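Fold this sequence, please.
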Amino acid sequence: MLAPTIASAPILVLILSPFLLAAPIRIAIKQESSKINDADALYRQAWELAESGKHELARVNLLGAVHLWKRINKSERSAQAILQIADYYQRTNRWQYALYYYKQLQNKTFPAQIRVVALNAIAQIYVQLYQRELALDYYWQALHLARSIKNRSAQSSALIGSAAIYAQQGDINQAQAYLDRARRLKQQYADRKSEAMALYLIGWIYRKLGQMTEALDAFKQALAIYQQEGDLEGEVLSLCSLSGLHLATNQKQIALEQAEYAVELVEKRAKQSLEMAYILRIRDLRWRACFMLARAQRALGRLEDAAKSYYRAFSHIEVMQWSPITSNDDYRITFLAERQTPYRELVDLSVERGDLGEAFYIAEHARSRATLHLLAEVQRGDRQPLQQTEIGQKTVQSIARLRTELLSPQLGDKQRERLQTELREAELQLEEARLQAQMGRLNRFTQPASLKQVQKAMLQPNDVLLGFFTGENRSFVWLITSENAFLEILPGQKEIEEKVKQYLNLIATKPNSLYLDREIAKQKKFGDELFRLLLGKLADKLKPEQRLIIAPDGLLYYLPYETLIHNGRYLIETHEISYIPSASVLGLLQQARAKSGSSDRMELLAFGDPIFGPSQKARLRGGLKVKADEPLQASLGSYRLPPLPNTRKEVLYVGELFPPDQRRVYLGEESKEEVIKRELLRRYRRLHFATHSLINERAPSRSAVVLTLDNDPAEDGLLEVHEIADLELDCDLVVLSACRTGQGQLLSGEGVVGLTRAFLYAGARSVAVSLWDVTDLSTASFMKSFYRYLLENRSNAAALREAKVDMLRNGKQTRHPYYWAPFVIVGLP
């Protein structure tokens, strides 16, 4: 065959061109097919690695598969793969990994329909981790995106999820509003389970409103759907709710039968469950079912059976709280706070059966367990401050910069709104980073103290521990010395707390000087009645000059027992008094003090008279209550904190009590957040802050000690709870000379979560805090007296007592408890 000539070459090319063009297409198809096969293979390997617990290798393989899919424009396939892996991790309670993959899907290159599913899933995980603020934020994002793509089922999921959070927080109106919005979507639920969840929530709301018939109907409808869908969790929860409803309406036998069926269902499934994560979910159902069974059995008079069922519920809760998934602080605090009722009812039943030692043992398991765990963690050195991590440093710096910018008076409304939005996002990022750091740490068991161990912790022969434990129908107080233990039965929680609220209104309100004697007489009469209500016959066992260590419960955390009247005198006149979260915490703090010691110790580090901005008239040392959902800097902008000139005099006076080489004092402009962070804090025996505070009862991590607010973007001047907890202290006393520093989020069992707890966690063994607003002038005078007595080698509690008695006896106006009673010692006496 002759080679083609130049002239004939174009004709030949035309003839061969279809074949020439098809070759690269075939090659491309072959290459694409090869990449698809490679990606699929990597994905299968990722799944197998995830199931076998090799999570980092699984991540590498999955990301490799995603990269290959993206190169051939298969972004939807890659999104589906990530979603499937994330769903697997969520089902198995490996939330740390699930969150990582769901967040990968927030890249806008992925389809919006998948992104909105991932947003709802992230919110659901945060609900399970008790990060409800974060959960609401992600539900809001999901709702916004679902509206934009007209995905009604995703909207419904976000609305129902938000309603559930508000219901858990006790905000019935808001929960009902979100449910109504979901129902207006013409029942376009994501699936039948979402419809059942909505019905369950409706039943819960009706129950709270006392509409029993409507609640019964809603729970029954929810149960029917859960049974049709084969949803064990929903079925058991519905049966438990129905059992409780029938018990409330005195249908005890029906309640028993429903609880027994719930236990039967969950125990049968428990035998089939092998995977650890699913076993934990089953345990959550088992304690609920056993608890409802115990209640029904007790209502029917079957006390021995009830005790066994209560113990089964108790054991499941105890195992659950030490699982790896409960290692973050907020989870454990809320987890135990929301599971207090079984403990409290078991304590009551143990007392009824005459087993007082067992009642104390159970009570200690219910009290301040998260605080106990955190303090044990500090002693073991198991923590790593978030700010030492790269992401923590960057986020904290970003928040400080934004808060500093918000202080500028030249900001326009739009600029301020933009900065506050950025700040809100940065604060949420910090919460997520903190959560991730905590989820990765080791979770170790901390055993509460027994009655004998508590008695050994009584260091002095005259030490007396008064441990309170409130219950729905009746409450208890233990009086414990090194040799004996006594128990008194008190009225129910509601009656006690109503009396305490009335009394606090009397003593925490500034008295009218024109009617001072009348107001004091009224207060003393009420104080005598409240003392007898809270101590009963145990009052006769108190002897003068005993040192009282009080472990309160519920609203009793806000009661200064010093003001109660015994034999015609204030309790402070005859006793040293201090407070402790629980008897178990007392022993742990004593261990910490025994380990303390340094050859290079300083006596005092003090901060006072910070600069807050434009001058205003000073009245109170603000303990400003701020909203959970607004940035702290917005609160400062709203309230414009006044200066506190007497704090300068207070700190100067206190400082001069110590040798110059044993003190370090920072005043005015120098009283900065960055100063305390760069100090070697473990050297100081005492820390003193004379300033304002910000108190957030809904989101205690945002409570703060306010230091100088300047234009330095490195720090914002707000020493927040999470920053305090990251400090490294080894001190005998922290004094928070400001308003309401002893307040915070009051949680059942755990007590007050706020500034006090943060300083104990940081390494303080005692914290002096205030329970209500204090005046700038009288507080300065009180603190001077307190430190004079400390320098006489008196204990913290003894020095505080002397300072209070001085103010009580030596001032005509300051005789009223409003002036001398607000400051208390929390921690070691």
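Confidence is low (pLDDT under 50) at residues 1-30, 631-639. The CA atoms of residues 69 and 78 lie 6 Å apart.
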